[in-house]
Amino acid sequence: MTQRYPPTSPASPAPPLEDENILAEILLRLPPHPTSLYRASRVCKRWRHLIRDPEFLRGLRAFHRTPPVLGFFHNSPCPPRFVCAEGSPGRILHAAAALRRDGEDGMWWFVECRHGRSLLRGRDWADLLVWDPMTAERRGISVPYRVRAATFDLNAAVLCPSTVRGDCHYSPFDVVVVCTRQARAFACVYSSATGSWCEVISTQMPSSRCELTEEPGALVEDALYWLLDEGSILEFQLGNQRLALVELPSETFSVYKRNIRVGRSEGGGLGLTAMKNFSMHLWAREVDHLGTEKWVLGREIDLYKLLALPLTQPRVGSIPVWISGLAEDGNAVFLRIMVGIFVVWPEIKKFKMLTNSVLIKTVDPYASFYVPEGNSLVVS
User: Fold this and answer.
1) Which DSSP letter does residue 212 get?
2) DSSP character string of 40-65
3) Which is one Pfam family of this protein (predicted)?
């Protein structure tokens, strides 16, 4: 008898990209920056649905750990106020341009960015604004007079509590305000969970000339750090809410001419990035065999070779390369040179020019995980 149908056989395994688990593992390994995720989400509805799935997004954060630097904010009069590092700036660019406040100047001034949020202030520090560019959430905060009394020498930081760091969108946050006056340093913490400020704490300073710089602070382990003018760093320990001073290397003034930024070292501890002409020096605070903390100079990066630009030797007393900012995880350095602002990744020795504006001095790098939707950026 003639066989009308071929014999049945076991089902063939699905191609790799048809298997949801294998596809998810592949997509997790894409670089988490705008171009990669946006292009992947445009392949088909199935890929777009997978990229927006909450379980995939949790896996994305766990796999990459360090959020990508999307760009930086700045207070320069040169528009736009947000400069994108890669891909399309999407909604961040338009939202930043629309930031206005009630008052004489109508301006919010960027203080810093951390854990996916931006901290802004009014001109007189009477008001703060915590803004999430991904979710558009905004929270206004009034700074008590006892915190800002009789001084304009203030700085501040925004951060998520240690229990939720790594996935801070929609979570509570803290704001730490520090100031110096009359040879003392002061600090006070605001909690969004309680909507209140804690008691003001203070510590003695070595001199009444010790003043905070305008550069953003750095979060290293369980402490915040800000540069002071007189060769030291102000430390605020989050756990016991205690203020202390950390001395800077002796080369701060004679060699680096204050062209330094405090941040996280390559080993994860307290570090410094400093510039000597066209050489980038990476310092780390380490403990020696006697248990004494000291500064240790690690790597030196020659920007002549790295940037491959026609850089000229500086005039006496000039600063040819200025450190404009550090990414919060210390993995990217923003430099201003004669032709514009560059971002440099010291670990892999790569760089990219972001803008030809030479009027921007200090930048506030912004890093966050997100998922593309159309031409906008949506929190992941």
Assistant:
1) B
2) HHTS-HHHHHHHT-HHHHHHHHHHH-
3) F-box-like
Report how far residue 35's alpha carbon sits from residue 88's, in angstroms, rounded to the nearest whole number.
8
Residue 105 and residue 77: Cα distance in Å, rounded?
13
| Separation CA 347–CA 280 (nearest Å) | 12
Cβ neighbours for 175, distance < 8 A, ≥ 6 positions apart: 119, 128, 130, 141, 156, 157, 158, 189, 190, 192
Distance CA 160, CA 171 (A): 7
**Model confidence over 207-231: pLDDT tens digits?**
777 889 889 999 999 999 999 987 8
How many CA within 13 A on the CB side of residue 22? 7
Q: What is the pLDDT of residues 239-287, one digit of tens each?
A: 999 999 999 988 887 788 889 999 999 889 999 999 988 899 999 999 8
Rounded Cα distance, 324 and 194, in Å:
35
| β-pair type (260-264, 270-276) | antiparallel
Query: Does pLDDT of 345 surpass 60?
Result: yes
Helix (H, G, I), strand (E, B) or coil at 319: coil
Q: What are phi and psi for residue 208, nearest 5 degrees?
A: -70, -10
Distance between CA 221 and CA 238 in Å, rounded?
9
